[in-house]
Write a structure and sequence with these properties.
alpha/beta, five-stranded parallel sheet, 8 helices, five-stranded mixed sheet, single chain, 221 residues, globular, 2 domains
Length: 221
């Protein structure tokens, strides 16, 4: 079952997008995350695969260097999501942000804020409507230009020590890709999924400023 949480304009280029929730009833099969409510940021005027083909996926991915049209090697493959997109567009299932947050707490399901797409494409006010955000994870590559209020919700995704330090100065905790485990900085902790196989649903380290832990890092994989 899925439900649309919000529809509006992308913070990147004002294209029509939506925030779609899945996994409320049927747990995600994602072994790394475990059972979490998965939030997808998708265009409403075309399936994800078409957005990529037409190079219009910036509406949901912004200037992410991992974006498909930036040839960055994104690990999320949007070509499988057409059926999910069609179901969402024809379904009458809807939640308000407040209802989703209540459901998350009631079912003890953490929220993954960006199963696909960047959370900063959705206005910060929408996220604030959830109140005190339940446990979960999320990442943004838009930290250099986005409202720093997103730091409360998500990690700044970075690929270098220099960018980590820049994001930290802006108030973000960071999630950094390492070339090797030896590159781990003193103010970083290795991702528990990499070291112990801990699932995201039980970890909670990548919840932005909701966690008071160190920055998080993981070797390139």
């Amino acid at each position: 079952m899925s439900g649309i949480i919000w529809k509006g304009e992308s913070q990147y280029d004002n294209s029509p997008i939506m925030l779609l929730a899945t996994g409320e009833d049927k747990p995600s099969s994602n072994i790394k995350t475990g059972a979490m409510i998965q939030l997808w940021i998708l265009r409403t005027d075309m399936p994800p695969v078409e957005a990529v083909k037409q190079e219009l996926d910036g509406a949901v991915c912004g200037e992410c260097p991992m974006r498909w049209n930036n040839e960055g090697g994104c690990y999320v493959i949007p070509f499988h999501y057409s059926i999910m997109w069609k179901k969402a567009m024809t379904s009458e299932s809807r939640y308000t942000p407040q209802q989703l947050a209540t459901l998350s707490r009631k079912k003890h399901l953490p929220i993954r804020t960006g199963a696909y797409g960047d959370p900063a494409m959705v206005p910060l006010e929408v996220w604030k409507q959830m109140g005190v955000m339940p446990k979960g994870s999320g990442y943004t590559h838009q930290w250099e230009t986005a409202d720093t209020g997103y730091a409360e919700l998500v990690m700044a995704s970075v690929e270098s020590l220099e960018k980590k330090e820049e994001a930290n100065k802006l108030g973000y905790r960071t999630f950094r890709i390492l070339s090797s485990p030896a590159d781990l900085a003193g103010d970083e902790v290795m991702c528990p999924n990499y070291t112990q196989g801990t699932q995201c649903r039980t970890c909670g380290l990548c919840g932005g400023l909701r966690s008071k832990a160190k920055n998080v890092a993981i070797p390139m994989h």
